[in-house]
């Protein structure tokens, strides 16, 4: 089969190469991949000189089961599925049932492929922030893959969503997704928030932490800014209604035993029904991967890049 593998001599640091077909274990289904989506974390790894040529990456994919798991777990042959993996930018992928969601037959594979990392991260982080109904919730990096899902899910959970985007042109889109306020940076938010989903880190994290009300939680998801977050001694004071604030870390793959199947299936149904916007801002054949990588690395995407397999 063909796969996109790390190749630092090629544009976008990836090349389409022949590799051996996967050999599924008894608990794994074999999936023929129809579409993949790129995430900033894995693209950063692909372009990092420390990642060796030939390395296989790729978390997000959607496709069709061509051979069900031998142990009877998971979806049946012919089912359309959305999958989370680790080495999956390839025509075939072997996946355990815990990393497979079943999608409606008429689902758009491109839209499904945006779900695993971005959709699951947004959903699992918002669960960590506690009850959202009637509360102010800030999402930084709101125009990105995780951010767009987070804005929509927090709004659906009844939150007053404060979306942060540096780009004024994104305000209309973010309001259409459910944001009640759109601000250029956390420091521009004047009313306290009960929770923060921070995709950006650096000074954004520091200012967002300062905006938390007593008892509030900031979940640090990403560090798109690539900058240090410097908290002065005063920033950590718990006086004047600022007590009991916390910063939590998050890693989607933190617990290898997590069963993502039900959440992937639910997100796939919501996206297919049009109740969640997958936020695709670039779509093309996987032979055009260098363009997608370039758009992601230069922060011109403001959404998900989807590569469609031929
Ligand atoms: N911990 C985990 O398990 C986990 C899971 C998923 C993602 N992540 C991480 O979370 C972050 C977001 O992921 P993503 O896929 O949503 O990325 P993305 O699609 O690239 O979006 C990031 C957003 O952050 C904003 N941004 C970028 N550079 C910035 C800067 N220098 N200062 C301020 N804002 C900036 C941009 O929005 P504007 O230009 O509109 O401001 C951009 O749309 C990444 O760092 C990713 O690696 C971590």
TrEMBL record:
It comes from Streptomyces chisholmiae. This is Zinc-binding dehydrogenase. SUPFAM superfamilies: GroES-like, NAD(P)-binding Rossmann-fold domains. InterPro entries: ADH-like_C, ADH-like_N, ER, GroES-like_sf, NAD(P)-bd_dom_sf. CDD domains: MDR4. Gene3D superfamilies: Medium-chain alcohol dehydrogenases, catalytic domain, NAD(P)-binding Rossmann-like Domain. Residues 9-307 form the Enoyl reductase (ER) domain. Pfam families: ADH_N, ADH_zinc_N. The keyword Chaperone does not apply. Residues 1-22 are annotated as: Disordered.
């Amino acid at each position: 089969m063909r796969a996109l593998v790390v190749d630092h001599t090629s544009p976008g640091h990836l090349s389409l190469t022949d590799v051996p077909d996967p050999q599924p274990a008894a608990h794994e289904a074999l999936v023929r991949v129809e579409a993949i989506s790129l995430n900033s974390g894995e693209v950063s790894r692909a372009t990092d000189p420390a990642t060796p040529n030939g390395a296989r990456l790729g978390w997000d994919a959607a496709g069709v089961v061509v051979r069900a798991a031998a142990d009877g777990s998971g979806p049946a042959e012919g089912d359309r599925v959305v999958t989370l993996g680790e080495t999956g930018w390839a025509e075939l992928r072997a996946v355990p049932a815990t990393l497979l969601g079943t999608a409606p037959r008429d689902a758009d594979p491109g839209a499904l492929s945006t779900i695993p990392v971005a959709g699951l991260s947004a959903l699992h982080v918002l669960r960590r922030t506690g009850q959202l109904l009637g509360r102010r919730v800030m999402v930084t990096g709101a125009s990105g893959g995780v951010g767009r899902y987070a804005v929509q899910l927090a709004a659906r959970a009844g939150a007053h969503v404060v979306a942060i985007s540096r780009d004024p042109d994104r305000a209309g889109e973010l309001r259409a997704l459910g944001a009640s306020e759109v601000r250029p940076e956390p420091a521009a938010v004047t009313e306290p928030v009960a929770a923060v989903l921070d995709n950006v880190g650096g000074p954004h994290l520091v200012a967002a932490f300062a905006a938390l009300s007593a008892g509030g939680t900031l979940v640090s998801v990403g560090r798109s800014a690539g900058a240090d977050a410097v908290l002065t001694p005063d920033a950590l004071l718990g006086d004047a209604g600022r007590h009991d604030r916390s910063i939590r870390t998050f890693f989607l793959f933190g617990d290898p035993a997590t069963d993502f199947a039900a959440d992937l299936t639910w997100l796939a149904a919501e996206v297919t029904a049009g109740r969640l916007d997958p936020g695709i801002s670039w779509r093309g054949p996987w032979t055009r991967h260098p363009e997608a990588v370039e758009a992601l690395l230069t922060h011109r995407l403001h959404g998900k890049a989807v590569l469609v397999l031929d």
